[in-house]
Write a structure and sequence with these properties.
- This protein is of the alpha/beta class.
- The protein is built from 13 helices and eleven strands.
- Helix 7 links the parallel strand 8 and strand 9.
- It is globular and about 60 Å long.
- One of its GO terms (molecular function) is oxidoreductase activity, acting on paired donors, with incorporation or reduction of molecular oxygen.
Length: 318
């Protein structure tokens, strides 16, 4: 079991995100991952720094911890050729510690180019082509590609790491899990659904399985639940809705019915180690072996102290 930390780029500024990555390394986490978003989800989240810039700074500021996008969408806002170049550069800067997490994206972040938001079927087609282009460019030399959705014209990524980064593909259902198995090196999910792991394995996937574990650390359960409700209640909306809404104002409206008790039930809230392990165990029991812990609590440094001395050892010894 490998234990990672999810950096909440929508809740903190870029410099603080890099500082937290350093603190996560010092606390003993195996990896950190950060979303590549253009907008935050809610009004209470007033940040959304560019993931690849922050990851470059993390590569310079850390020594051993693995770095990952969790995840980026190479289908609209960013052409896959640009993602291939950015990921290759991070592979060089981090001395091979970078993992490229990919997904079919959310309208929240991709609609900003004004091209319209494709159906999920089309997005999956685009993701397949994007992964093919990224892998093609990582082979070295000049490459061209003519697909249904993307064209690559005589392009070359000059700075390549010694080994290509691992590609992790996000999945919320069987179709995306199949893409992860067929074109990716690993699976990524945000829900403790054993059927996702089963679909991944059925399609031939044998790599690591990443998942985000919702926690909120604070001195009391109530304080933790209120903090999680303030900054993370959107996570209870479900992926089908989350992928379709265009702006924070829409998420505010959609999440208006979600109360503190709803969040308390979904998150491991408070200072209790057993509750945190219980929530993480749901993901481990579902078949995930790379757990990225989310902390929606008000004091990140207190969480790192808790993780270093209690939570990480407990999860490793489970």
């Amino acid at each position: 079991m490998r234990i990672g930390f999810k950096l909440i780029a929508e809740g903190y500024g870029p410099k603080e995100i890099v500082r937290q990555a350093v603190a996560a390394e010092q606390a003993g986490f195996d990896f950190v991952e950060v979303s590549d978003h253009y907008h935050p989800w809610l009004f209470s989240q007033q940040h959304s720094g560019y993931a690849f810039s922050m990851l470059g700074a993390m590569a310079h500021a850390t020594e051993t911890i693995e770095l990952a996008t969790g995840v980026t969408a190479p289908i609209q806002r960013q052409h896959p050729a640009i993602v291939a170049q950015a990921a290759a550069t991070l592979g060089v800067l981090s001395d091979g510690r970078f993992t490229l997490g990919l997904g079919s994206g959310e309208r929240l972040n991709e609609h900003v180019t004004g091209e319209g938001w494709p159906s999920v079927t089309v997005r999956h087609e685009m993701l397949r082509e994007a992964i093919e282009i990224i892998r093609l460019l990582w082979q070295g030399g000049y490459k061209s590609y003519a697909g249904k959705h993307f064209t690559l014209d005589d392009a070359r990524v000059f700075d390549l790491p010694e080994a290509a980064p691992r590609i992790v593909v996000a999945a919320g259902g069987d179709r995306a899990a199949t893409i992860a198995a067929e074109l990716g090196d690993a699976l990524f999910a945000t829900e403790a659904k054993p059927e996702l792991v089963e679909a991944y394995r059925k399609a031939g996937g044998s790599g690591p399985r990443y998942a985000e574990v919702p926690l909120s650390y604070a001195a009391t359960e109530q304080e933790a639940a209120e903090s999680a409700h303030k900054i993370f209640r959107f996570g209870l909306l479900g992926w089908k809705l989350m992928s379709e809404l265009p702006n924070p104002i829409n998420f505010e409206a959609a999440a208006s019915w979600i109360g503190v008790d709803d969040v308390r039930e979904a998150f491991g809230c408070g200072p209790d180690l057993d509750r945190h392990v219980e929530v993480a165990a749901q993901f481990a029991d579902a078949g995930f072996d790379h757990l990225a812990l989310v902390n929606a609590g008000p004091d990140m440094d207190a969480f790192f102290e808790h993780a270093q001395h209690a939570l990480i050892p407990a999860l490793r010894n489970r």
